């Protein structure tokens, strides 16, 4: 057996012929990884939630505004910490025994591109980490202080998340349809539970927020126009 064939035989990822060098199996089970991940997220979000309840001179935020600010706080954490970890460690992720390494290897059962330094995936996650991570935290702050730039920023981030997610999903579907290359294991749990469900979240919620910001912008300009603050260009 050649070294490449040995690499193929020693990992559980798809496609079967994928070369994943230095793969080390996870020592943590899926439920344990989920518990650890949830604990880390809670450790970040609980202080954020407390800060938001003290925002606006201690009055806190309306329920809907609080939920949106918490969403952006969650996005900031995931984009910077989780996806940022991938960006800086993608070349050695298959052998990574750490918690974040094991989390990514668990998710890679639904998309092995995360263990092969796939060009599109690395570039897409780099943009997500560098742009949408910091801007998501800024959006949460803008909501907390009721900043007038909140909706333009919310719309920008949400559009970027939708665009990146569509490209991410469509490149996988394209490879499966035209190249007969599937990156997910065949079990429904991995494809529908990890790949479809988790990524659908970043289509549905950003879609609703983009709509919210679009309506808010339209209403703001309509109000200004009604008050005479925005005049249409005169035609001869």
Protein model, in words:
Helices cover 69% and strands 0% of the residues. With 236 residues, it is mostly helical. Helix 2 (30-53) crosses helix 4 and helix 5 runs antiparallel to helix 6. The radius of gyration is 21 Å and the shape is globular. It starts with a helix and ends in a 10-residue tail after the last helix. The mean pLDDT is 92.
Concise overview:
The protein is mainly α.
Question: How many helices?
Answer: 7
Topology, number of strands:
0
Task: Let me know the largest β-sheet.
Answer: none
Provide the succession of SSEs.
HHHHHHH
Question: What order do the helices and strands come in, and which of them pair?
Answer:
Elements: H1 3-9, H2 30-53, H3 63-89, H4 99-107, H5 119-145, H6 150-178, H7 188-226
Main features:
mainly alpha; 0% strand
